[in-house]
Specification:
Layout lengths: L1 H6 L9 H5 L4 E4 L15 H13 L5 E4 L7 H11 L7 E4 L9 H6 L4 E4 L3 H10 L1 H5 L4 E4 L1 H32 L3 H9 L20 H14 L5 H24 L8 E5 L15 H10 L3 E5 L4 H4 L7 E2 L3 H5 L4 E4 L4 H4 L3 H7 L4 E4 L6 H6 L3 E3 L9
Parallel strand pairs: 1-2, 2-3, 4-5, 6-7, 6-9, 7-8, 9-10, 10-11
Helix pairs in contact: 3-4, 8-10, 8-11, 10-11, 11-12
Bound molecules: uridine-5'-diphosphate-xylopyranose (UDX).
């Protein structure tokens, strides 16, 4: 896409901000808003730095659009800062949150469930409507709302999705105790249109650059204005506990201790199709296993380089079978498609133990048992399905 559109003169890049914004009707700010180390707030340093630079180079009225995920009220601060830093009169500041998933961003952009625009004036609404006209013609709904509301929608969406995941993870725990199947529960509730089938897949806890950071930032926004958000607070706690309990699950499956045991880890990235290790559940899992005396041999199709500095003492293998060599147990942590088609018989031959702990339910019990493994998935009860 970058190559084709650059060649046709529709896309260009520059490190000269003045040149980049010259003649632009809209300027999108899309810098990072990481968690501020001291207090968990969203760190807006990069957003405000961008605004200060913009104020110096904008020549006429422009719509400044915030794509970055920013706390409620940031748009107001941007508007004030533009004025303070001497931007020309007639600026508009709009909020236009992104809902893209890593690894599926282009598809999510082209076929969005919705486009949210938060603006306080007609000009901003008009310019953004025009920008998104091609998607609107493709039936994407556009929700026009106030700027603060739009800023909140992004956090509310991520918190709600995080809640669905924590909900199904707790249901998986219950399924294990009462011999029920969490996938059937997810399907059984997901077919209800009011609930919906997505984000009901159990796992080792959500990670990545958005859910952990945005749930915390939402809690801070709420605390600042003195409003309790007990559900989101619990979601964060449930997820932290989940991530921290995965090592014990592996230890229990190995009879209570991992001391001296060789454990193969399949997948390190926080989810498939990315090399992103931010808040990945593999980090607390591997580090805890190492601390308890395990020998770790890990494999990820693309995230290994990013993982190296985060799990000191782990060995990294060149493929899944190499990771499994002489291992006492195989632990699936990321649901890469390439893991689904692996040869379980070959694993059985390579490994010294015969245990699979599948934290993504990519295998089924019958296949694993046929290859001679004991199989432990998430929320699948004891029943052989
Ligand atoms: C998320 C939002 O989906 C996106 O709209 C927002 O713009 C950014 O944050 P992303 O972090 O890329 O996107 O990944 P996503 O696919 O949402 O997964 C987040 C985490 O939840 C991953 O760790 C994933 O493994 C986990 N997850 C997701 C589950 O455990 N179960 C599910 O059913 C879905």
């Amino acid at each position: 896409l970058v190559k084709a559109n650059s060649e046709r003169g529709r896309l260009s890049f520059t490190t000269d901000l003045g040149e980049g914004v010259d003649g632009a009707e809209a300027v999108f700010i899309a810098v990072g808003t990481p968690t501020r180390a001291e207090d968990g707030h969203a760190d807006l340093t990069y957003v405000f730095a961008a605004v200060r630079e913009l104020a110096k180079v904008l020549k006429g009225p422009t719509v400044v659009v915030t794509k970055s995920t920013v706390p409620v009220g940031t748009g107001d601060q941007i508007a004030a800062l533009l004025e303070k830093e001497g931007a020309p009169a007639g600026m508009s500041v709009a909020s236009n949150p992104e809902f893209l998933r890593e690894g599926a961003a282009i598809r999510d952009f082209k076929i969005p469930d919705r486009i949210v625009v938060g603006a306080e004036d007609d000009k901003a609404r008009e310019v953004l409507r025009e920008i998104y006209r091609p998607l609107f013609l493709n039936q994407a709904p556009i929700l026009m709302t106030g700027r603060r509301t739009s800023e909140l929608i992004k956090y509310a969406a991520n918190a709600f999705l995080a809640m669905k995941i924590s909900f199904i993870n707790e249901m998986a725990n219950l399924c294990e105790a009462v011999d029920a199947d969490v996938h059937d529960v997810a399907r059984g509730i997901g077919l209800d249109n009011r609930i919906g089938p997505k984000f009901l897949h159990p796992g080792p806890g959500y990670g990545g650059s958005c859910f952990p950071k945005d749930t915390l930032a939402l809690l801070h926004t709420a605390a600042d204005v003195g409003v309790e958000q007990r559900i989101v607070k619990t979601v964060v706690e449930v997820n932290d506990d989940r991530k921290n309990s995965m090592a014990d699950r592996v230890a229990k499956a190995l009879g209570g201790s991992v001391q001296g045991k060789r454990i193969a880890i399949l997948g390190l990235a926080f989810k498939q199709n990315t090399d992103d290790m931010r808040d990945a559940p593999s980090i607390p899992l591997v580090n805890s296993l190492l601390k308890q005396g395990a020998i770790i041999s890990a494999y990820d199709p693309v995230a290994t380089d990013n993982a190296r500095g985060l799990m000191e003492g782990a060995e990294f293998a060149k493929d899944a079978y190499a990771a499994a060599k002489d291992a006492d147990a195989l632990v699936v942590v990321t649901e890469w498609d390439e893991f689904r088609g692996l040869d379980l018989e070959r694993f059985a031959q390579a490994m010294s133990g015969k245990l699979i702990v599948d934290l993504r339910n990519v295998y089924n019990r019958a296949d694993a048992e046929e290859a001679g493994f004991s199989y432990i998935g998430l929320g699948r009860g004891k029943i052989d399905r």
